[in-house]
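Here comes just one.
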Amino acid sequence: MTDNWLLARPEVDLDEVRALARRDYGVDGELTELGSQQDRNFLVRGADGTGILVKIFHPTVDAFAVDLHIAASDRLRAEGLLTPEVLTTVDGARTTQIVCADGQVARVAGFQIVDGKPLSDITDADGAQAEELGELVAEVAEVLAGMDAEDTDRNLQWELGNALAVVEQLIDDLPEDRREQCLTAARRAAAELDAVAAHLPRQVIHGDLTADNVMRDRRGRHWVIDLGDVATSWRAAELAMLLADLMGRTDDLAIVGRAVTGFDQRARLADAEIEALWPLVVLRGAVLAVSGWSQLRIDPGNDYARERVEHEWQVFARTARVPSAEVTAQLRLATGRPHRAGLAYRPVLAQMDAAAAVDLGIRSAHLDRGRWTVPGTEQALVRETLASAPVAVLRYGESRLSRVSTDTTRPAATRARCVELWTRPGVEVTAPFGGILTVDTDPGGGAGAIEVRDAGVVLRIEGIVLDPAVATAADGAVDAGAPLGRVAELEPGLGRLRITRRLREAAADAAFTDAEGEAETPGAADPSAILGTDRVADPVRATRHARRVREEAIGAAAERFYAEPPQIERGWGALLIDTQGRAYVDLVNNVTAIGHAHPVFADRIARQLHLLNTNSRFLYDAFAEFTARLVAHSPDPSLDTVIPVNSGSEAVDLALTLARVATGRRDVIAVRESYHGWTSAADAVSTSAFDNPHAADSRPDWVHLVDAPNAYRGRHRGPDAGAAYAREVADLARALADEGRPAGAFICEPVLGNAGGVIPTAGYLTAVADAVRAHGGLVIADEVQVGYGRLGSSFWGSTMQGLVPDIVSVAKAAGNAYPLGAVITRREIVDALAREGTFFSSAGGTPVSAVAGSAILDIIDAEGLQQNAARVGGIIAEEVRALMSRHPLIGTVHGTGLYLGIELVRDRETLEPAREEAARVCDLLLGHGFIVQAASERQNVLKVKPPLVLTEVDARRFVAALDTALSSLRR
């Protein structure tokens, strides 16, 4: 039997492998060998990027085994699981063959290449990943359970029914000082397994579903690979393979437990399977240990086996040192069962069945309107809950919004690794299970703590006034339901028990952790199953799921911030808060001018939704009120007419239409490096190469481009640059008129937002306006990004530049992320549109949108947000300029108010863009609690365009964080 297990990789001619790929699969390219114990795997990629994975099975693998591999692959794919497709040869066959160096014939299959990497290569295992892998293992097991095959029993070295035989026959290949330990542990585990084996369900399983055999592709999806060990075995063995892998990678039983949780949530484990899991894990570790050394003896050139041999010993050593009974207790708790079969937990407090949970999570409605920032909020909500329930439960795993730090540079420990039970002082506390009792008394006679231990489970209860008999007792036995004491008074009328769990040998971890901490650890395990309370789902896993769902739904073309963005589910003022309880200062959101979750804004919209929401062709007050409010803020009294729309793109599109119908001309002059929107017309005048790399080549013939008036790095620089850029526009306008196609409009942002807040030199826009109007054209000011008081000194960028435009397009701030924009212009220009037909916007002019628009203008005025933009923006600009003496990477600071751009350059003379450095700074700033993104064609300008409510304190913290980030680049 040993000979069937000791299989050296087959020797093959590499030229013949390449020829096979070319002949049978039509793929020609260089070979890259991938590691394997007993087979050979080659990646073949052609010059065009196409390729194939060629798998050469060991010659002893017969046709039935290969067919079983293919059948399992086909079944997984048919049921919607991702696994590489088995490709057909040019002749339509599922396999081919190759002659090995020793003359034996080996079967060959070609597989689709997955553009990704094994999880073991790209990420450290954590609890969220373990739970997700556990669920994937269960899903694979469910699919393979239905396989229809005549005989799937295979005498495999890796099938755990053979584990003890494998260990006993290969034990002499281990170093001598390891043999007794391995053999003793394997025999003990086999005996434990024999006790329950008759009750274990059997089915076809993958047989090696570990982090090595799960790949993550670029879209974050998981692929199951390497089905070479498919065979009938115990279903629990499928999960045991994963648990052994996780233990070897982490040495963390809490993470192992999370994998069991994931499996059990998908496919309920039987009690016997839980009993069998750890013996199977130990046997898996023992097989790995002996097999690795045996493989090196018969195949000393196998680098793959050599690199893994010590790791595989660690898998065994880590699994074997923990008693199976204690691990089983932990795994039962991971599935929500009592830690001993047949055990029923007693309530810690009377009336636990009527307890009510207090929602302190990031989305909690109890914490709206900034209530989460008020000290004492947790206790206030507890008191409210106790008015109608005997016990208030604060749940394990919850990222408590009430604990989020508003100082984003000092993130707080928000995620609970404990359960808190609040009730009236004096309520009796009883032991939930029997075990050994340890007492931790308060020398001052106040609240104490007890620990109950059983089968490696340690439950700690703090906040008890101990019964005298308990307080004076030495460590001893306690029965389930025995009185332990009474709830101590924490503050008038309130008592709190804080309950934690840990593994027997683990030191206690903190009851709360920050966003970077692991949700569950051996020193802070979940006690919810013992207490009968609900736990909160791990936000890390939820975030990863949300990323994949978004990627699947929207695709790669949708822009997002960061490669692995935090999941933001709440905002307040200039803060954004993710689901893990970390707050960030939002420095990119010029959409949300009045700040996030402004209560006045939310109330006014909500009230209108209770009244009416319809389109603008009906008559209602809100429409007239909003347009009147916006006209009152217009750049000039001549701009007396407003048309609401639903977005900036629609505003620009309509502005271009108005110019065309008012002048009878279609030609437009636009500025390079600009972005105006995504409708056909708005995109036509958008020339940002970052948003559209082919922008300059795809302009229609009616769009004519001029250089961006960038006096810092453009073609014309210095104090006379504005006049030079204006002459370029004048010359183009004249040339178009001479050709008989005079421009109907010139469109430009008064401050170049896409370039990072570059302010055109004084006089540029007025000179351009004169030149365009001289030939009968109109001037469109795109204020979508920079208007509404953001610039501080002026409500509009055109006003700051001394320009009275003919048409103004607005959005973003106009709706505070609500679907609202507008076009402001003169009456006669709108009347020209009426000659072609009427206009309405289904979303832009609704009563709710109109109320939103009026509320925003009211709040900007009432709260002095334009003045705040001037003051706080001035602080940032001044302090960043002061950093320039220490950080030569800062080339200049563009913009004004709260539309700033910090341009990073590698050389202040050549102005070489520091694109990579800018990206790195953005990532570093995220770690400091500031969301900043790069702008401009060169992606080297840090955009600073936060909500207008940004505080001076956060502004100064940002500058300090920027200083730190830039300093780290120099180390």
Summary: The CA atoms of residues 750 and 798 lie 5 Å apart. The mean pLDDT is 93.
